[in-house]
Amino acid sequence: MTATTIQVHLPSFSHSFNVSVTSDSTIIDLKHEIFRTCIGSPNTAGQRVIYKGRVLDDKEIVGHVWKADEPRICHLAVHPSAWTASPPNS
Fold first, then answer.
1. 50-64 pLDDT, tens per residue?
2. Are 28 and 44 in contact (CB under 8 A)?
Protein backbone atom coordinates (compact mmCIF):
# COMPACT_ATOMS: atom_id res chain seq x y z
CA MET A 1 0.00 0.00 0.00
CA THR A 2 0.99 3.58 -0.60
CA ALA A 3 1.86 5.82 2.32
CA THR A 4 -0.72 8.47 3.16
CA THR A 5 0.30 11.68 4.90
CA ILE A 6 -2.20 13.07 7.38
CA GLN A 7 -1.89 16.54 8.88
CA VAL A 8 -2.75 16.42 12.57
CA HIS A 9 -3.91 19.61 14.34
CA LEU A 10 -3.64 19.83 18.11
CA PRO A 11 -5.72 23.00 18.59
CA SER A 12 -5.41 23.24 22.37
CA PHE A 13 -1.64 23.66 21.93
CA SER A 14 -1.64 25.55 18.59
CA HIS A 15 0.51 22.74 17.21
CA SER A 16 0.34 20.81 13.93
CA PHE A 17 2.45 17.98 12.53
CA ASN A 18 2.31 15.32 9.82
CA VAL A 19 2.21 11.55 10.16
CA SER A 20 2.40 8.88 7.48
CA VAL A 21 0.49 5.61 7.47
CA THR A 22 -0.74 3.33 4.72
CA SER A 23 -4.29 3.67 3.44
CA ASP A 24 -5.13 0.20 4.81
CA SER A 25 -4.03 1.21 8.33
CA THR A 26 -6.60 1.49 11.10
CA ILE A 27 -7.12 4.53 13.30
CA ILE A 28 -5.32 2.72 16.14
CA ASP A 29 -2.31 2.42 13.78
CA LEU A 30 -2.59 6.18 13.20
CA LYS A 31 -2.67 6.73 16.97
CA HIS A 32 0.51 4.66 17.38
CA GLU A 33 2.19 6.83 14.74
CA ILE A 34 0.96 9.96 16.56
CA PHE A 35 2.48 8.55 19.78
CA ARG A 36 5.84 8.17 17.99
CA THR A 37 5.71 11.54 16.21
CA CYS A 38 3.96 14.07 18.45
CA ILE A 39 5.91 16.08 21.02
CA GLY A 40 4.90 14.74 24.44
CA SER A 41 4.10 11.26 23.07
CA PRO A 42 0.44 10.99 24.12
CA ASN A 43 -0.52 7.38 24.82
CA THR A 44 -3.03 5.92 22.40
CA ALA A 45 -5.77 5.35 24.99
CA GLY A 46 -5.90 9.07 25.76
CA GLN A 47 -6.06 10.23 22.13
CA ARG A 48 -9.25 11.20 20.31
CA VAL A 49 -8.84 11.58 16.55
CA ILE A 50 -11.57 13.82 15.13
CA TYR A 51 -12.53 14.24 11.49
CA LYS A 52 -15.45 16.40 10.31
CA GLY A 53 -16.64 16.76 13.91
CA ARG A 54 -16.75 13.02 14.56
CA VAL A 55 -14.50 10.99 16.87
CA LEU A 56 -13.07 8.17 14.77
CA ASP A 57 -13.30 4.59 16.01
CA ASP A 58 -10.02 2.68 16.45
CA LYS A 59 -11.13 0.01 13.96
CA GLU A 60 -11.93 2.39 11.09
CA ILE A 61 -9.67 2.20 8.03
CA VAL A 62 -7.75 5.32 6.99
CA GLY A 63 -8.55 4.78 3.30
CA HIS A 64 -12.28 4.65 4.08
CA VAL A 65 -12.27 7.79 6.22
CA TRP A 66 -10.35 10.05 3.84
CA LYS A 67 -11.34 9.67 0.20
CA ALA A 68 -8.74 10.21 -2.53
CA ASP A 69 -9.85 13.76 -3.39
CA GLU A 70 -10.20 15.01 0.22
CA PRO A 71 -7.53 16.81 2.24
CA ARG A 72 -6.16 14.47 4.89
CA ILE A 73 -6.51 16.62 7.99
CA CYS A 74 -7.73 15.68 11.46
CA HIS A 75 -7.90 17.19 14.93
CA LEU A 76 -6.40 15.53 17.96
CA ALA A 77 -7.74 15.84 21.48
CA VAL A 78 -5.55 14.43 24.25
CA HIS A 79 -6.66 13.70 27.80
CA PRO A 80 -4.33 15.51 30.24
CA SER A 81 -3.25 12.22 31.86
CA ALA A 82 -2.26 10.74 28.47
CA TRP A 83 0.93 12.79 28.03
CA THR A 84 4.00 10.63 28.68
CA ALA A 85 6.29 13.69 28.44
CA SER A 86 5.81 17.47 28.32
CA PRO A 87 3.19 18.42 25.72
CA PRO A 88 3.95 20.98 23.01
CA ASN A 89 4.25 24.59 24.13
CA SER A 90 1.11 26.55 23.31
1. 999 999 999 999 999
2. yes
